[in-house]
Design brief:
The complex is a heterodimer of chains A (110) and B (637). With 110 residues, chain A is mainly α. Helix content of chain A is 69%, strand content 0%. Chain A is elongated, with a radius of gyration of 15 Å. The chains are: A mainly alpha (110), B mainly alpha (637). Chain B: It comes from Flavobacterium pectinovorum.
């Protein structure tokens, strides 16, 4: 798999991220594009998990808000798609709003 | 007494024809055969079972209930909501004939709920039929008429269940008779008759005829005395109906409504033809008794005995009256479920009878019994009224709840639509946003690339320019050097020229000197002429020759002209062409920087003449007195 494909796969939920990460680790020549998008993808996946947990708690407390709050999950999807677009264009641009938080974290991805 | 008996009779009669008997188009045997068929769809089977139930509902309610229940079970097994609704309607109808109001209402409600859930027009029509009877019982006139008409409109449109159609229109007609609205009554009775003829079912026709005759009697009674023509037509209709029933009876079908027709005909004779045809009235009474006994219907029997009592009262035949009343009381005792109103009426009649016979003891006895019966009746009626009210209240509440629920469902539907629209909108907006994000990034990348290219080009250009500037600088340096070199060369040239001129001058001088020496030698030779004249002459000749040949001036001039060509031309210009060769010679010497004396010496002339020559040159050159000729000539290039 080339670097572009790996970058795109790293955004397709946490499963896709794991596949991309394993494949990336096998590579002898690491490239910055895949590393960048692996960081972004992991960041968004973790954010999604946090959001869904928070929403479940809120929905349990205030059931009337549940249907409206479930729309927030859509944000994660949108971020993922934006990341995929970035990867497809082979750009090292962080996703809007939260992307900058992940650029200097997750140093275990070398 | 006549009055009270008439009371019994009317009350019984009305309650009787309002709760009419309906008849199926197909006979019971036909229906039973149809049900036995193996290849019958469950829906059709349920339909036939319901029809069978409606056939039996008057004569054998248990069987009717059984068939309706079978239809319901079948529908439940098939999980068919609309068939369930129809089966519930049949059950409700059976319950109506059992006088079990609560059950009737329950079944009607079930039927309606299921029918509305199934949204099947047929099921809704059946349910409306059941609901109409429920409303009639509750006393909700508008709703009864509304639901009945709705239901009948469907049956009429699809031409099914003519028994229900005829029955329904008959009941509507009877309802309007009760409310003294003969216009509508006529309309609906007529319709019932038309539909009965359309159904081509003999029983339906007979029922329609009976209803039409009833309406005609009622119409005739509007006038006092009653319209004899209308009464005659009514009688004819009754007789036609009876003929049909007789015909059916001969075929083996005993039909419940036969009794009704007979009773109504007898009452017609009793009230309108008693005076004119008492024998005929009696004959009909006997016949009716026979029919009623055959049918064994307590209500019909009671009405029949009531008519007999009326007849005997008209004849004032007391023992017969007593006999008849005894029969009525027997019937009441054998059927304990009968309305207590009949007890009260019976006791009232006994009381009247005792009054006629002046039998106080029995009068008192019957009065007490009457009192009790009335109390029971009142209580029952009160209870019934309470029940009616409660049922009415409940139905209203329920209908309100249903309305609320439907409103709720509708609002929920609207909200659902709104949500769906919102979701679609959000989806498209997201799609659009992401698309624009993608393309913006693309264009950003493109412009970046272009910018990079432009930058590179710009740097290249600047580099080229710098190089060009460097080259230009170098070139300019080169030219400067060249210039300097040229200047130096020029200087060198000039120096050489001056050197050459000086050399030339010195050469000239040397030549002059030599010439002088030669002249000296010539002079000396001439002095020595006398001695050796011939030899010397030759020598002097050679010297002269050499002197003439040696035209030094020309040489000088050419040498001067060669070295400084402008010099003589400028001088000539200044003097406007007046200078002679000699003048040029002087000028040349002056240019060489020789003094006047030196020149005079050199030219071998007097100093004075040299001065004169100088003066002439000065004039020729148009010079002022103050300007020195020497300086002027040296200044001329």
């Amino acid at each position: 798999m080339n670097k572009k494909t790996l970058s795109i796969i790293s955004y397709i939920t946490i499963i896709g991220w794991v596949i991309a990460y394993v494949n990336y680790n096998k590579l002898t020549v690491k490239d910055s594009l895949t590393r960048f998008h692996l960081k972004q993808g992991l960041g968004i996946a973790i954010l999604g998990i946090i959001i869904s947990v928070a929403l479940t708690i809120i929905a349990a407390v205030v059931p009337t808000l549940a249907s409206i709050l479930s729309l927030v999950n859509l944000v994660v999807l949108v971020l993922w798609i934006m990341g995929i677009i970035n990867a497809n264009n082979e750009q090292e641009i962080p996703v809007p709003v939260v992307g900058k938080l992940f650029t200097d974290k997750f140093d275990f991805i070398k | 007494m006549t009055k009270s008996l008439q009371n019994i009779f009317y009350i019984i009669l009305f309650s009787f024809f309002v709760t009419n008997i309906s008849h199926a188009q197909k006979s019971k045997q036909e229906l039973l055969k149809l049900i036995e068929q193996a290849a019958l769809s469950p829906e059709a089977k349920g339909d036939y079972l319901c029809q069978l139930s409606s056939c039996y509902k008057k004569t054998d309610t248990i069987k009717a209930y059984h068939y309706a229940n079978q239809a319901l079970i079948l529908a439940r097994k098939e999980n068919d909501i609309k068939s369930q609704a129809i089966a519930y309607e049949a059950l409700s109808d059976v319950a109506r004939f059992l006088d079990n109001v609560s059950l009737q209402i329950k079944y009607a409600d079930s039927s309606y709920t299921l029918a509305t859930a199934s949204k099947d027009p047929k099921a809704i029509a059946y349910a409306n039929y059941a609901i109409a009877y429920k409303n009639e019982f509750i006393g909700n006139k508008e709703k009864y008429i509304e639901y009945m008409l709705k239901s009948l409109a469907y049956f009429e449109k699809n031409k099914i269940r003519y028994d229900k159609l005829v029955n329904g229109y008959e009941n509507l007609g009877a309802y309007y008779i009760d409310h003294n609205d003969l216009v509508f009554s006529k309309k609906y009775n007529k319709k019932a008759l038309d539909l009965a003829y359309e159904s081509k079912n003999q029983v339906n026709i007979a029922n329609g005829l009976t209803s039409w005759a009833l309406f005609l009697v009622r119409d005739a009674e509007q006038k006092t005395p009653a319209d004899p023509d209308l009464l005659k037509t009514a009688e004819k209709n009754y007789l036609k109906a009876i003929a049909i029933f007789e015909n059916e009876k001969r075929k083996g079908n005993i039909i419940g409504s036969y009794g009704r027709t007979c009773l109504n005909l007898t009452s017609l004779y009793l009230y309108h033809f008693f005076e004119t045809e008492p024998e005929k009235t009696l004959a009909h009474l006997k016949k009716t008794e026979a029919v009623c006994l055959e049918l064994n219907e307590p209500m019909q029997l009671m009405v029949m005995y009531g008519q007999q009592a009326q007849f005997y009262t008209n004849l004032n035949d007391i023992p017969n009256i007593e006999k008849v009343l005894k029969k009525v009381s027997d019937i009441i005792e054998t059927h304990p479920k009968i309305n207590p109103r009949y007890f009260a009426l019976l006791y009232k009649n006994y009381m009247d009878l005792a009054e006629i016979k002046n039998d106080f003891a029995s009068y008192k006895k019957y009065f007490n019994l009457y009192d009790k019966a009335v109390a029971v009746m009142m209580e029952k009626e009160n209870r019934a009224r309470d029940y009616n009210a409660s049922v009415r209240f409940e139905t209203e509440k329920k209908s309100q709840q249903i309305q609320l629920l439907t409103d709720n469902i509708e609002s929920r539907k609207k909200i659902n639509y709104l949500y769906t629209a919102l979701v679609v909108l959000v989806f498209f907006m997201l799609l659009f946003m992401l698309r624009s994000y993608h393309f913006r990034q693309r264009s950003y990348i493109k412009t970046n690339l272009l910018l990079q290219k432009a930058n590179e080009e710009a740097t290249l250009l600047s580099k080229i320019k710098e190089e060009e500037a460097m080259i230009a600088l170098l070139e300019s340096e080169l030219t400067e050097k060249e210039l300097q070199i040229a200047i130096q060369e020029k200087k060198l040239n000039e120096q050489e020229k001056i050197k050459l001129q000086q050399e030339l001058m010195t050469n000239n001088l040397q030549l002059e000197k030599k010439n002088e020496i030669l002249k000296d030698i010539q002079n000396k030779l001439s002095t020595m002429k006398s001695e050796k004249s011939s030899d010397i002459k030759t020598i002097s000749k050679t010297i002269d020759k050499s002197m003439e040949v040696d035209d030094e001036f020309e040489l000088l001039k050419t040498s001067l002209a060669n070295t400084n060509p402008v010099f003589f031309s400028t001088l000539q210009e200044k003097a406007s062409g007046t200078l002679t060769k000699l003048d040029f010679k002087y000028c040349g010497y002056i240019k060489l920087g020789m003094s006047t004396k030196e020149i005079a010496n050199h030219m071998n002339i007097e100093t004075q003449s040299m001065r004169m020559a100088r003066y002439r040159i000065k004039q020729k050159l148009n010079l002022d007195r103050e300007t020195d000729l020497d300086t002027y000539i040296t200044s001329v290039q």
